[in-house]
Amino acid sequence: MIIGIGGISTGGKSWIAQKIKEHYRNEKTVAILCQDDYTIHQDDIPLIKDHIDWEIPKSMDFDRFYRAIIKHAKEYDIVVAEGIFVFHQPRFVELFDKMIYLTLKEETFLERKRKDLRWGREPDWYIDHVWKNHFVYREEKEVLDKMLIVPGEYPVDLERVLKYIDT
Prior knowledge:
Number of strands: 7
Order of helices and strands: EHEEEHEHEHHHEH
Structural class: alpha/beta
Oligomer: single chain
CATH architecture: 3-Layer(aba) Sandwich
Radius of gyration: 16 Å
CATH topology: Rossmann fold
Strand order of the largest sheet: 2-5-1-6-7
């Protein structure tokens, strides 16, 4: 089974992926592939105001990510592929057995993103750019209609997610 988890930055994709792995740990082998690990070389990513623009599809190496999913699907019972552009190309949508999309209210996003120091403190203009680009590149309605839409605010309804996976 291949599960895709998408949504805005800091929406809880990695957290949900980890919870899925923990849930099945005694029953199935689970691999988690984070799209953040499949970007093109940093020097090749376009800049916005002298800042690397991670929030555009051009930052991703979609071919390498796709190959990794296929490879892991042969080795694991469940592959969870997560990232902000995980549903960006039709071939990924066709590949996934289950698709989960995490939403966030703007105030929750802003609070989380300001606390997210993985890449250092981001300027407010960039955080605003992340929020706006999410809507520019968000999946089309026809694709969203095929997904389980889950609010990313805590507490996340993990039981609903697991039930969806098991059906």
